[in-house]
Structure of caffeoyl-CoA O-methyltransferase:
Amino acid sequence: MGGNGESNENQAGRHQEVGHKSLLQSDALYQYILETSVYPKEPEAMKELREVTAKHPWHVLVLYIQNIMTTSADEGQFLNMLLKLINAKNTMEIGVYTGYSLLATALALPDDGKILAMDINRENYELGLPIIRKAGVAHKIDFREGPALPLLDQMIQDGNHNGTFDFIFVDADKDNYINYHKRLIDLVKIGGVIGYDNTLWNGSVVAPPDAPLRKYVRYYRDFVLELNKALAADPRIEICQLPVGDGITLCRRIT
Ligand code: SAM
Ligand code: CA
């Protein structure tokens, strides 16, 4: 046995897949996906919004913020396709920023589709709003400024919204995701989908305890780890964790 036995034992629970690295093994491969399949198909308005967002003062000041805040083009393409596949009509978004995922959603919904969009910051939303208007989809959006949790509580209390949402995209304060989930599970319809964004949290979900992580990454990591465990244990949903963007976990309500 010796060293071999030990390493076999360590390997016992490890996956045997050989194809999993194909998506993320190099920057060049990611660039290839963007250039071959994403950018050529990206609607003009989404491209324009991406460019306006890249010039946002926060981004100019601290370049890496762009990657943290805005949804990537490939994830925008994925959301747009997913919404069409499930024929979504009534949706919610928590965490709008300048509106890239919101625009991807608005472009996917039918003309009488609705998005209830929440963010504590209206200024950033207004940066993207002229582009959303120009794309002819602003009428689908009901933007609410303020923290999402009290709004969700109000909706639950009203009782008119239970089981009404086809799709809900959560991309805001990670330390509240579990609190959102407690409410959203009642608001999404049975068969509907909740997408929790950034569930791989910069890859930090597998970082060793002494890894040098940025302060905010370290702070939110524990919440993301808790969320991932809670979603996997929740019998009311089926889940699918996708390595798109920073990781998105799709939860389909089944009861
Ligand atoms: N989905 C956006 C996109 O595609 O560009 C990115 C959203 S950004 C990662 C997170 C957003 O969540 C920020 O705009 C922030 O203002 C918002 N936010 C933070 N805490 C919030 C809260 N308690 N309620 C609602 N929005 C919140
Ligand atoms: Ca995100």
Summary: Residues 71, 171, 197-198, 246 surround calcium ion (ligand 2) (CB under 6 Å). The CA atoms of residues 67 and 108 lie 23 Å apart. The chain has one domain: 23-253. The beta strands are 90-94, 114-119, 141-145, 165-170, 188-197, 237-242, 248-253.
